[in-house]
Amino acid sequence: MIESSEFNVKAATGQVPRESRTAEEASITILGASGDLTARKLLPALYLLWQEGYLSGQSPIIGVARREKTDESFRNEMFDAVSSHARTGPVTSDSWKEFAKRLFYRQMDLEDRRAYPAFGRELETIEKETGVEGKRVVYLATSPDLFVPCVEGLAEGGLIPGPEEACRLRVVIEKPFGRDLGSAHELSVQLARHLAESQIYRIDHYL
Fold it and tell me: What mean pLDDT comes out for the span 74-99?
């Protein structure tokens, strides 16, 4: 039996046998998906997790941003990004074809709370089509001033489960989390209006 801390070290260094790895299933939504963070860090990291057996090939990854794109154009952009920044070496066409079929893109103004209910319905459709309707991860790859509006939009769209199902959602928030102690506390207060603490994952730049 590998202790959790030892397992984490072994996983990070590639020492965990593939048969011991768990391919987790969840829909992954990236709000602010047209930015540099998504192209340089998030999609290459998700591709690596999938290749290494930690992310299910069923899990849909939905990029959301204001720019107009199709699923196909988003997939092509992300192929170029992953090819340039992934730590796995060259990306083969067969490997990418298998991974990219779970990539989707939806255009939305992240500041418009009225747009989130329609996006919620789109997300449910994608989840049903891919067979992944349990857990959700929402990654806020946005500027800090959009953290609260995005969470308010998720609440407006009915995308935040109640306390009894809180474990179904995790919202990932990038650094900087506030400018100082006071603003960080205020941000926590505003997020707590809609999210349980267990649903908030604060991260320092890297997935």
Answer: 90
